[in-house]
Design goal:
By secondary structure, the chain is an alpha+beta fold. It has 2 domains: 2-51, no CATH class; 68-254, no CATH class. Helix content is 20%, strand content 22%. The protein is built from 6 helices and 14 strands. It has helices at residues 2-12, 41-51, 107-112, 133-136, 152-161, 165-172; strands at 17-18, 38-39, 68-70, 73-75, 77-80, 83-86, 118-120, 129-131, 197-198, 205-206, 211-220, 223-230, 236-242, 252-254. The protein has a 3-stranded antiparallel beta sheet with strand order 5-6-14, with no helix packed on it. Strands 11-12-13 form a 3-stranded antiparallel beta sheet. Helix 1 packs across helix 2. The longest helix has 11 residues, at 2-12. The protein is elongated and about 80 Å long.
Length: 256
């Protein structure tokens, strides 16, 4: 059938070929349907009348647990309850529409901006990107189409799935990379890394190895909600803070 499909493609391209170009012993379909020694339009018509309905377009249906490609990076995913989460921190340098997210800000610029911005911890992508909340809230979107930055409520659904804030942290932390014996079990598959953050008031990079901080998309007064995992606790802390901080970001969608 593959030989027949190749034949159709060549005929559609307007290429006329002598029948000697095909090894008849390996072709399941005689390309010279009218026996005139050439493969032409009449042969194509014969081919389509025989095989035209035999080829249906097929595609591999994506499901949670499969990787998803976004902005040149493949991200792993995991289903947790009815939610599907990235198991890696976002590291895109562009919004969903392809426009660049400003980066390489000086400490003073990071403090003063009220627009979306990002950075990599000490200019290295090991923990993913660190985004201020203005980038999270930007209408151009941080996550792939069909995905979004989790709301405060969606974070709560996640932690409730693992027994609540007081015990979920140990299940969400990776079993490597946390300082001072602070590794978790990662039984959740969330794979929380201690990516640290970028301070809003002095632009310094702080706490890698000790803490992981992830934005929610939910504002609260002049600040916004986020979640914090610590190397010294199994707790998942829920805090509200200044929108200028640079935190990690995860993407989520509801599993189908």
């Amino acid at each position: 059938m593959k030989n027949a499909l190749s034949l159709a493609c060549m005929l559609l391209a307007g290429i006329l070929m002598p029948t000697t170009s095909f090894a008849q012993s390996s072709a399941p379909y005689n390309p010279d349907g009218n026996g005139d020694g050439m493969i032409g339009v009449t042969d194509l018509q014969d081919f389509l009348s025989t095989y035209g309905l035999a080829f249906e377009a097929t595609s591999t249906e994506w499901s949670c647990g499969d990787p998803i490609g976004y902005a040149g990076v493949d991200y792993s995913t995991v289903q947790i309850g009815d939610q599907c989460w990235f198991t890696e921190n976002l590291r895109t340098t562009t919004y969903l529409n392809g426009e660049a997210i400003p980066q390489n800000f000086s400490d003073g610029e990071w403090f003063s901006t009220t627009s979306g911005a990002m950075a990599f911890y000490n200019d290295g992508p090991a923990y993913g990107g660190l985004y201020n909340w203005f980038a999270v809230d930007d209408a151009r979107g941080l996550c792939p189409s069909g995905w979004h930055v989790p709301t405060d409520g969606e974070w709560t659904i996640l932690t409730d799935h693992f027994g609540g804030e007081s015990v979920a942290g140990g299940q969400m932390k990776t079993n490597y990379g946390w300082f001072n014996g602070g590794n978790g079990t990662n039984s959740s598959g969330f794979s929380g890394l201690p990516g640290g953050f970028r301070d809003y008031y002095d632009g310094n990079f702080v706490d890698a190895g000790n803490g992981g901080l992830w934005w929610s998309s939910s504002p609260n007064g002049s600040g916004a909600w986020y979640r914090y995992l610590s190397n010294g606790s199994e707790y998942v802390y829920r805090y509200n803070t200044n929108r200028r901080f640079g935190f990690s970001v995860r993407c989520v969608r509801y599993a189908e």
